[in-house]
Amino acid sequence: MADEEPGYEQARDELAQVVAKLEAGGLSLEDSLALWERGEELARVCERHLAGARAKVDAVLREAESQE
């Protein structure tokens, strides 16, 4: 991805828009496929952000447990 990766909220919001457009129908096959591919990329972006957040939470919890 040449551009800077969007933040979680931005990616999530754009993904919701992509899903709404696909569900509304009326698109050409080419446009539908392009939107599907964009949706897949946005889902991966969201997963990366969530994995990073989970790792941070896990690290904080481990640190807290080690101090008990």
Automatic annotation (TrEMBL):
Pfam families: Exonuc_VII_S. The keyword Secreted does not apply. GO terms for cellular component: cytosol; exodeoxyribonuclease VII complex. It comes from the Bacteria. Its main location: cytoplasm. GO terms for molecular function: exodeoxyribonuclease VII activity. Keywords: Cytoplasm, Exonuclease, Hydrolase, Nuclease. Its EC number is 3.1.11.6. It is found in: Cytoplasm. It catalyses: Exonucleolytic cleavage in either 5'- to 3'- or 3'- to 5'-direction to yield nucleoside 5'-phosphates. PANTHER family: EXODEOXYRIBONUCLEASE 7 SMALL SUBUNIT. Bidirectionally degrades single-stranded DNA into large acid-insoluble oligonucleotides, which are then degraded further into small acid-soluble oligonucleotides. Belongs to the XseB family. This is Exodeoxyribonuclease 7 small subunit. It comes from Actinomycetospora corticicola. The lineage of its organism: Bacteria, Bacillati, Actinomycetota, Actinomycetes, Pseudonocardiales. The gene is xseB.
